[in-house]
Amino acid sequence: MKDERIRKAYADCPMELDTKVLVMLLSLGDDVQADVESWLTALDHTLRNPPNWVVVAGLVNVSTSSPLTVGRVSIEPKTEKRFGELASSCVSGDLPSNWKDCFERIETEAILITHVQAPNETLARRQADALFRETVACVRLFAFLDGYTEPIGLQGTVAQPGPTFIAAISEHLERQDIRMVTVSMSADNKRGKAPLNLQEAAWTTSERFRSVKDVLSKDISIRTELEKRFLRAMHWFGEALVEPDKTDAFLKFCIALEALLGQSDLLSNIATPMAEKAAFALGRTTAERIQIFNEVKKLYGHRSRIVHGSLDVSGDSLETAKMKTIVAGLLQAFVDNNWMSIFSHWSQFANWFDERRFSEPS
To answer: Mapping DSSP to helix (H, G, I), strand (E, B) and coil, where does residue 242 land?
Structure first.
């Protein structure tokens, strides 16, 4: 019985629920209520000790077949709400009385429950909102790097996450004193397809993303300039991934690139410096760097024609796909090359680029 399998997963969990992070992905079948009751029971004692707060959020979009209220947020039938709107639904102590009903009626969506320690509701919301934004951006990026063609937050499109996807969540929250349970209710899961192995999925870790985990666990006030650039770029990359309009997605990928590599004193001529930095970061040889340089220059010509209204590119996806690949490669290069640890100030990073651009690797 699935209920017993979940109880066993909690019993075999190598961490204490009241002191460590819990990341559990549950694949729900027809016995939705039994699953919900089992993990609510397991989490019950962590949710009843003030001044702790339970913050309820749906990630990405939520739609329902009938009116639904989650905490203080009302959702009308067949409408969508962004996760940020639901993130503001914050209750003290216990879960909303209609929580089980919520799980049975929310369609093709993931629900995030976090246990936040804060002295009051306002600070709890603020902490949770910031955490949710960064978590969503992190998940979208790493799900994409895991090979998902349409990663949308924690939705059913990533019902069988790879090790990179899981590491992005578990390592992000490791130092946050937060217990998180993610329940996937995709249509495929309801039909019994692509079941998750709870233990293998929940406790996969990756040394590769230690630098990202360290950045996300830092207080905002002590993050370096380069770390802030990376997080802003990661956010816009995630927004572009879930943008249905290809032209808008292309522009958001451009914003991500400029957030990562842009310079305020070059706003009137950004194409060349963007192309040079992207070429050096991604190219392994001089020939590859020249090819990337030319490609980015062409993409910025495309961007200029969109922004200045001389080009109607409705439905155009080729340039969007190219820019997505470039930005994803740059974000991955920041992680793989440990640049956020090597450099703290943008000027150091920019000088390092200038000294080595278009040089043949030794």
So the answer is: coil
257 and 168, same domain (yes or no): no
Asked whether residue 212 is assigned to any structural domain, the reply reads: no
Beta-strand (E) ranges in the chain? 22-27, 52-58, 63-64, 68-70, 73-75, 89-92, 106-107, 110-117, 179-184
Burial class of residue 62 (count of CB atoms within 10 Å of its CB; 0-12, 13-18, 19+): buried
Rounded-to-10 torsion of CA 266, 269, 272, 275: 70
Question: Could you tell me if 315 and 196 are in contact, meaning their C-beta atoms sit under 8 angstroms apart?
Answer: no
Residues 29 and 159 in one domain: yes
Domain presence at residue 362: no
Distance separating the N- and C-terminal Cα atoms of the chain:
59
The range of the structural domain enclosing residue 236 comes to 222-356
In the block, which residue shows the tokens 């949308």? Answer: 152
Instruction: Judge contact between 261 and 330, C-beta under 8 A.
Output: yes
Q: Are residues 33 and 157 in the same domain?
A: yes
pLDDT digits (tens, 9 = 90+) for 116-134: 445 655 565 565 556 556 6
**214 located within any domain:** no
Q: What is the pLDDT of residues 122-175, one digit of tens each?
A: 565 565 556 556 655 665 565 566 554 433 333 222 223 334 434 444 444 443
Domain boundary among 148, 172, 207: 207
Indicate the pairing of strand 52-58 with strand 110-117: antiparallel
Same domain, 230 and 145: no
Report the domain count for the chain. Answer: 2
